[in-house]
């Protein structure tokens, strides 16, 4: 349930309610809005204690949350969540584009791509050091060495970086090198991993599972927020359908729907979502038009030599071109930088 406190409630009043929630064995989650403080009471059947809180004079109203996800829901928080990474804000007015190679392959390649995508207007550098490959014989990523390169290139270019973590035991180590932790589609329901990043302090980019419903996606997001980490970005990256002409089916309707159901920022990955270089620009334009807060795009200067996902990697010149189109669309929607 959600407890909304009266607008003149003091910190002492908030503390009293929090204390009561804990005494009853539930977990309080506080959301301080511009006018009112809302406290989410998380735990099974919390609503049966409604009377206890209704009796407190500082409580304005109590609303049960009927959805299985609570903290990620719009009911819990009306305002959009803005995730801040240094000077970059995801979920605010401006569209944020993350771009870079699928995998960190070498220092030179990473630096080259980073400079090119920055020049084109990307605000965050992407690159995988631990790669979840379908085949155990495919390039698995440079591991810790790749993280060091990401950190170095981030310092040189002043771009924050996002990278995937696959193992809960590596969350702490990866967090030392990068700014955003990515949970890949294949790990969307790795609950130990979700709990681990939920305990952490790094912002998280959670990708939708390849066969997951939006409800399941939001339940996974709930794991992260319920651990105390509210800095979560959701990423639509395509789902498996009967269609095999594209690598996945990019579900763009998920964008406005999730924005309705949740306060969290949503970005779109047109690279994995289509698997086809030529479709990346049009689907990026469509994603921004559909209300996406940003994009995550694979860029490689020589896709034919890429160690992973060359077929869907766009070359920097094309990336540059479609970034201009995206900026125009964003401006029309009042979302220019
Ligand atoms: C990636 O972004 O590098 C990746 C592997 O994506 P996904 O988990 O969406 O397949
Ligand atoms: Mn990839």
From TrEMBL:
Residues 1-67 form the DAHP synthase ferredoxin-like domain. GO terms for biological process: aromatic amino acid family biosynthetic process. Pfam families: DAHP_snth_FXD, DAHP_synth_1. Keywords: Transferase. InterPro entries: Aldolase_TIM (IPR013785), Class-I_DAHP_synthase (IPR052899), DAHP1/KDSA (IPR006218), DAHP_snth_FXD (IPR041071), DAHP_syn_2 (IPR006268). Its EC number is 2.5.1.54. The keyword Isomerase does not apply. It is an enzyme of class 2 (transferase). Residues 87-327 form the DAHP synthetase I/KDSA domain. One of its GO terms (molecular function) is aldehyde-lyase activity. SUPFAM superfamilies: Aldolase (SSF51569). This is 3-deoxy-7-phosphoheptulonate synthase. It comes from Aerophobetes bacterium.
């Amino acid at each position: 349930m959600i407890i909304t406190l009266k607008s003149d409630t003091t910190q002492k009043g908030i503390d009293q309610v929090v204390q009561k929630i804990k005494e009853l064995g539930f977990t309080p989650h506080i959301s301080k809005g511009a006018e009112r403080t809302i406290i989410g009471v998380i735990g099974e059947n919390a609503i049966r204690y409604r009377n206890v809180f209704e009796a407190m004079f500082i409580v304005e109203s109590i609303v049960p949350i009927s959805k299985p996800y609570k903290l990620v829901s719009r009911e819990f928080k009306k305002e959009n969540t803005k995730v801040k990474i240094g000077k970059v804000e995801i979920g605010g007015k401006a569209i944020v584009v993350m771009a870079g190679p699928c995998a960190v392959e070498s220092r030179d390649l990473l630096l080259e791509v980073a400079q090119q995508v920055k020049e084109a207007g990307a605000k965050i550098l992407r690159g995988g050091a631990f790669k979840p490959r379908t085949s155990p014989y495919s390039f698995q990523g440079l591991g810790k060495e790749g993280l060091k390169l990401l950190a170095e290139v981030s310092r040189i270019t002043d771009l924050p970086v996002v990278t995937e973590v696959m193992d809960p035991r590596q969350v702490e180590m990866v967090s030392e090198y990068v700014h955003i932790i990515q949970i890949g589609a294949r790990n969307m329901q790795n609950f130990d991993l979700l709990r681990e990043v939920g305990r952490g302090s790094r912002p998280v980019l959670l990708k939708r599972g390849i066969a997951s419903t939006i409800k399941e996606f939001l339940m996974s997001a709930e794991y992260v927020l319920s651990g105390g980490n509210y800095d979560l970005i959701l990423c639509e990256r395509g789902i498996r359908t009967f269609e095999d002409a594209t690598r996945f089916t990019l579900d763009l309707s998920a964008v406005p729907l999730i924005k309705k159901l949740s306060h969290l920022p949503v970005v779109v990955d047109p690279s994995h979502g289509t698997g086809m270089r030529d479709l990346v620009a049009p689907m990026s334009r469509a994603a921004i038009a559909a209300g996406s807060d940003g994009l995550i795009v694979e860029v490689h200067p020589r896709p034919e030599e890429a160690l992973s996902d060359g077929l869907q990697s766009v070359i920097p010149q094309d990336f540059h071109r479609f970034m201009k189109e995206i900026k125009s669309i964003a401006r029309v929607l009042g979302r220019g930088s």
